[in-house]
């Protein structure tokens, strides 16, 4: 049942405790632009008239991320939202829209999604989904990333990322 | 026995042969995977029939010695479990990994002991001993690796 998840699909997902209570909803995904890692989530109150929560969910307090919910042990998993967001903001908060450049200087496109392996605890970034100029989606596995600068990702070779790791739509 | 079959069944006092109420719901201790009591509707209000006061859980009726075994919730845990919002039917079943296990359609239990045997969803028959929690939103299960659809 394990599959790679797109972080971009998570906003709106319920945050559910192991006791079966819906504690919150995912508002935004917070990335560390420098490392490309996921730091955690900002939250909304659950339900129809939901407001932004003053608490956030740090990645190391996530119990599991699946297609039904983001699981936490209980309400004590939440911390002050500034503890999740500030570290990212200090460094310019988002890996999305960064350009991907090959070692040999070819521009592959723009990062449009971050791919997660949810079987890892806490869930781990395993790659990026990159949209090329002609609209193709390319998967760049994290092990192929040589450097992440806050501006761009550099990957090896000429951008010929074949070898089974790449999904084209 | 399935909880949807047992619902609305009459509760009969063997001493007086009178119907003292009807089964309206089940008080479930999720961590222990067992039914601790029944929510009994008596003249429109809810009372608790503790499981150890059930004489027999028969196919047509539940028997008790007399109406006095029905009582108010005894503690906070019972107060919580009597809440109709904790009815498992229709709730999502979620693995602790966050994976969807389907929508709960029924719960199978042993009428002799009250032990839960399985939780049935539209996709799986989930062993009740993996149950971790039952809240107002979902039933949560431990790792189900290797489980195949029923």
If you had to describe this structure to a student in words, what would you say it looks like?
The complex is a heterodimer of chains A (169) and B (150). Chain A has 169 residues and is mainly beta. Chain A has two domains: 5-90, SH3 type barrels, CATH 2.30.30; 99-155, Photosynthetic Reaction Center, Chain H, domain 2 (Alpha-Beta Complex). Chain A has one helix and 14 strands. Chain A has one helix at 81-90; strands at 5-6, 14-17, 22-31, 38-44, 52-58, 64-65, 70-72, 79-80, 99-102, 107-117, 124-131, 137-141, 147-148, 152-155. The longest helix of chain A is centred in the middle third of the chain and has 10 residues, at 81-90. The two termini of chain A are 22 Å apart. Chain B has 150 residues and is mainly beta. Chain B is 7% helix and 43% strand. Chain B contains two helices and twelve strands, in the order αββββββαββββββ. The A-B interface holds A 1-2, 14, 16-22, 63-71, 118-119 and B 30, 91-92, 94-101, 132-140, 144-145.
